[in-house]
Amino acid sequence: MSAAGKTTLSAALCTHLRSLGYQVEHLDGDVVRRGMCSDLGFSREDRHENVRRITRAAAEMVHRGVIVLVSAMSPYRDARAEARSRIPEFTEIYVNAPVEACERRDTKGLYQRARMGKVSDVPGVDSPYEPPLDAEVECHTDRETVEESLAKVMRYLTPLLEPARAVGQSES
Hints:
The protein has helices spanning 6-19, 29-34, 44-63, 77-86, 99-104, 110-115, 146-157, and strands spanning 24-28, 67-71, 93-96, 137-140. It is mainly alpha-helical. The chain has a two-stranded parallel ribbon. The chain has a two-stranded parallel sheet with strand order 3-4.
């Protein structure tokens, strides 16, 4: 959900993976929305289209050997399942925080505006959020530090990372 900590965790993971020599790109939902998805609203259909476009961009980069981190709100299981089916080595990290925690950290005022009826289609307020049923990693950002969540993600990813994919390394 919004303000769950997706961008914060993705940025930390991006920095860490780059420090290990991996080629990494971070697609942040807010940034993507301002660019290639600025024509979309927040209906179920538009959210699905947003995820579809992000998935297509991520798949292209993955095809070129880049590790892609996506921190975007994707409240519907079917859109996440479609992304999983289109991206090899897809790993879902469920950045889990109760709506109350998200509201406390909401720097954009989204939840307050939704509660006042000024915006609609906000997952957790007036629109559903369907939690993942099969995420590879779940981070509880309301009770874990960024470092603890990062460590949890790296415990999962480390066996999957190929040393030869790191920038500047070659197979010998």
